[in-house]
Automatic annotation (TrEMBL):
One of its GO terms (molecular function) is peroxiredoxin activity. This is Carboxymuconolactone decarboxylase family protein. InterPro entries: AhpD-like, AhpD_core, CMD-like. Residues 26-108 form the Carboxymuconolactone decarboxylase-like domain. Gene3D superfamilies: AhpD-like.
Length: 115
């Protein structure tokens, strides 16, 4: 992604492509769905905390599509901007300057999904 980011559109586009993969790669997509469910399941950490960790990793790894999906989930879970900014601060600490640029993408995604 470059220029003005449209995170709602990114989620829609990626989801469509993933549906195509479900048809041609059902075993892969089933396994990925199970991995996602296991990675976000309530346990010692609640769902929101696990999504915040996932967002921090997405920022540090510089994955805009991942940022879009995790911010969308966080907005649905009632995450505040202050909570989001705290996790972004940690992601920037761990990932340096490039993560700072992707942290701004996460803020833009939060604004878009919150509107």
């Amino acid at each position: 992604m470059s220029g003005i980011l449209a995170f709602k559109e990114a989620v829609k586009d990626v989801s469509e492509h993933m549906r195509s993969l479900r048809e041609t790669q059902p075993d892969l997509m089933t396994a990925f769905g199970q991995l996602a469910a296991a990675g976000t399941r309530e346990g010692a950490l609640n769902k929101k905390t696990r999504e915040l960790v996932s967002l921090g990793i997405a920022v540090a790894c510089r994955c805009d599509d991942c940022i879009a999906f995790h911010v969308q989930a966080l907005v649905k879970l009632g995450t505040s901007r202050a909570e989001l900014e705290d996790v972004l601060g940690t992601a920037v600490y761990m990932g340096g300057g490039p993560s700072m640029m992707y942290a701004t993408h996460a803020l833009a995604a939060f604004d878009e999904f919150s509107s």
